[in-house]
Fold this protein.
Amino acid sequence: GNGLTASQSRYAYFGSNLPATQWIVPVCVRRAAVRSCTLLDKAEGAIEAKGDGVIVPNAGGWGYYRFDMDPAGWNVLIAAAPTLPEGEALAVTDSLWASFYAGKATFPQLMALTRSMAAHPASNAALDNGSRLRGMLRRGLISDAALPVYRKLIADIYGPKLAQLGFDPAAGAHESDTPDKKKLRSDMVQLVAGAGGDAAVRAKLIAAADAYLAGDAKALDPQFAQFALSLDVED
């Protein structure tokens, strides 16, 4: 109906054993334009969820908590991810990845959210999952044997988005874009060419770096210069 049962527990990484803690948590749930706020001051309690449509357990992304749901609830929220306000989108990403590192959410759920959220219009929301996916390599969670498939996964998710956005490393080529669109492109280039190892994008950057080093100051925009030169040295 219009109600949910919520329980609270201390967040902990998988395998850790921390003493239980309880808080007084103001929980605001959103469904369409209707916000329902409840003070959860017990280990478990009823909270309202008035309205229709997708349940967003942290309205506005303002709550100082992470949330978790059953798989069906997550699936509906993941599908709606690109339409969420930026604050809520970031809270959704943080909560699902936190659930994964707590040993609850599954990797396929993370990938479903990563693919869905890549269509978000805000650069931070669109690429937060990609940054976290890249972080799995730094955490030592990607084996050498899995590395080629891992790189292909990143390139397959974000490569088409970059192609749709358009990319020219030349100086001033995207001068008329908004600052957020410029940031989105810059971060996506690093994901696709760096973590994703996309040969075509890497080649474009390296060619621009070579031309720049040969004296063509307009071949490489300052926004891409450091990354392109580092790829050139690496190559």
Notes: The chain has a mean pLDDT of 95. Residues 26 and 39 are 4 Å apart (CA to CA). The chain is about 50% helix and 10% strand. The first strand starts at residue 3 and ends at 7.
